[in-house]
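re: ur question from the group chat, yeah i did fold both. here u go
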Amino acid sequence: MKQQMSGRYGFRVAAVSVVFGVCAAGSASAAAGMNPDADEILRAMSRFLAGTPAFSMSADISNEVVTLEGQKLQFNSSATAVIQRPSRMYMSRRGRFADAELFYNGQQLTLYGKSVNAYVQKDLPGTLNQALDALESGIGISLPGGDLLVADPYAALTSGATSSSYYGIAYVGGVAAHHLAFRTRTVDWQVWVKEGNEPLPLKYSITTTWTTGAPQYSVQFSNWNLKPTIQANRFTFVAPKDAVRVETIAVDEMGELSAPKGSK
């Protein structure tokens, strides 16, 4: 889950993911407060995502922060993703503090910071699940929305949930969607799932309820393509001219990237 942080910008914020998404933590259980309609729709969405061999999408991301003076600010960025199960992934994100690309071809995982022209690369034969785990544990970058990409999204999303609710049909980008809300001990999160036979997530938000000002992180998805045309080299990183390979790329609490000085 996102945890309260503060730093050189004087913000109290939730831990920032460089690309996009929301994670949950704890043990999955069928809590007494779980709404059966919300549960059924979330299961349908999860099965659909897990059963889609390849897809691409775009995302608009909003990340709220609360200054130490109590002013709430919202920072926005855009992202794209191309996924090919079980072991290929490409993501990009561009915003005020981050301009980055992520590549995984089933053998190597690469994070490239365009603004610093530096990249971290690790040999990692495996699957998307292993790549997402390595990002957080090995490179130190959280992909909270990675829960939507794993082999079992339902288990990842409901982990730690203590209650859920169903709020009927809403409209996201003009598209009818089921509005679901879930609670854990530390955050509230919501998801809007497209109505019909393609139960795709259209919007996802998380509120850190125990952080001052209750900042919210949200992602609105668009341009879903369930049969994308994917270039053969889409998931393999080719270093740009003068790009520097480093052991780590620092990511501060606002998502700004920086490479160690003197990296070669």
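okk and heres the other one u asked abt
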Amino acid sequence: MHSAFAPLAVIIVMISAILAGELSAPKTVRQAAFSVVGIEARTSNAKEGTGDGVIGKQWQKFFQDGVLEKIPNKVDGNTYAVYSDYASDKNGEYSLTIGAKVRDGSPAPPGLVLKTVTAGNYTVVTSEKGPVAKVVVAAWQRVWAMEDRRELAPRAYKTDYELYDQRAADPENSQADLYIGTK
């Protein structure tokens, strides 16, 4: 496909997915602060674009080490991937914490970290349904394109997070929500 038609093709696919009920239009919500306990790594989108990325390895470690079972005081059965400690914007380094939402005041057990998702406005972008690694990356690409086209409120670059609920139970047919912190 000629590159001039690529944005049109993406828009057509997105509209088709929305009409089919597989993808909803982004919405803005007001989110209260909450805490997540989990494992953490530092990375950047540039690093993730190479064969030296850490996000996939962190997810593998999360499941292989049974991290979710080691987290006390969970408030729900969901898994959260929190992006925080941004050096600058989408081009800078950030921290990724994969874990569970916990009751306020809960400490992190040894070997795990505690992160606070800041209160504020978040634009919720829902991924398509499909293999989790594919659809979540595509959802982030959608966020970055919206940001570039100024279709997204200016990002706060404090905290963003991915919510994996019952719709993500099957890794080959998953759907997740990306919560993008905005100013």
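fwiw on the second one: The chain has four helices and eight strands. Residues 38 and 110 are 10 Å apart (CA to CA). idk if thats what u expected
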